[in-house]
Amino acid sequence: MTIFTASTTAPVNIATLKYWGKRDKTLNLPTNSSISVTLAQNDLRTLTSAATSERFDEDQLWLNGKLESLESERTQHCLQDLRDLRAKLEAQNPSLPSMSKWKLHIVSENNFPTAAGLASSAAGFAALVVAISKLYQLPESASEISKIARKGSGSACRSLFGGYVAWEMGTAADGSDSKAVEVAPQDHWPEMKAAILVVSAAKKDTPSTSGMQHTVGTSDLFQERITNVVPKRFEEMKQAIWSRDFAQFAELTMRDSNSFHATCLDSYPPIFYMNDTSRQIVKLCHQINAFFDEVVVAYTFDAGPNAVLYYLQENETKVMAFIHQVFQQNSGWDSKFSKQDLEVFS
Ligand code: 2P0
């Protein structure tokens, strides 16, 4: 029997302007546009292979070596959209094999522990959708395909592009204009680095999907954020990226992380994602910037206590010396930096 296969990798993306709130839960249409930086291909990523054959009996998914269900409504939405596009292609080219009617076998693997408290659904859905669209040889652009990944998990649409990415919220009720677009490729600003400080590997208290709807329904501050804060910040952040203005990019990133966590705290009952260690990191970053009298580092926190720091390559040792100094006493501390590298600043 003939088995057709295709593989792809999709990296994790970390938002610098946060997506938090849906205006349509089924289509994953957001209440605001967002911006992210996609990590490099060989850092944190999902590798997915998709196979199809006339002989396969059922759709199957192996996730990190374990057979998992493909039954979730979100996954079914993605598979249906991809099969519809393939069926359209087959109608135009009758010589193509009828893959749209065949079952799929999917094997997916993360190169980072799923339990590390890092968002894996974005890379996971992005890789799933891209692997199948490659298998089906779909001619649609990455932005078009990102609309399908968005239905799997909102933030997944941004992992279809490398570098600096915007998810334009759109206004159409059917989601036809809610898609990811490239702001700039990775090599536009290759000096940008991200460091992830894993504060806790525990599973998060409040999942993002329910957490954001709780905020939409109960926070007064949320309206202010989506109406008066984010639209302006969306334009300013793109400008900061285009002009490679790190100080501006960093300030907007830190302000947006704080604004997002403020709406979580303003939800009723409140949601706490950051903990004491997270807050210690925030304070330390501001102290580092004050020490150098220059913005050399930015922090951002997602729906959990782990920090992502952004800095330029030239400032890596400056930033890490402080982080090392403050956190080296903590159990579990691990760093690729040697004491010698860092001593100059301690
Ligand atoms: C983001 N987060 O922009 C924000 C910041 C978490 C905090 O996107 O319900 O897993 O699957 O659309 O994409 C996490 O939300 O939520 C997220 P769903 P998703 O990265």
UniProtKB/TrEMBL annotation:
Pathway: Isoprenoid biosynthesis; isopentenyl diphosphate biosynthesis via mevalonate pathway; isopentenyl diphosphate from (R)-mevalonate: step 3/3. Its EC number is 4.1.1.33. Residues 10-179 form the Diphosphomevalonate decarboxylase-like N-terminal domain. It comes from the Eukaryota. Residues 195-346 form the Mvd1 C-terminal domain. Gene3D superfamilies: 3.30.230.10, GHMP kinase, C-terminal domain. GO terms for biological process: ergosterol biosynthetic process; isopentenyl diphosphate biosynthetic process, mevalonate pathway. Keywords: ATP-binding, Lipid biosynthesis, Lipid metabolism, Lyase, Nucleotide-binding, Steroid biosynthesis, Steroid metabolism, Sterol biosynthesis, Sterol metabolism. One of its GO terms (molecular function) is ATP binding. It catalyses: (R)-5-diphosphomevalonate + ATP = isopentenyl diphosphate + ADP + phosphate + CO2. Pfam families: MDD_C, MVD-like_N. One of its GO terms (cellular component) is cytosol. Belongs to the diphosphomevalonate decarboxylase family. This is Diphosphomevalonate decarboxylase. It comes from Lachancea dasiensis.
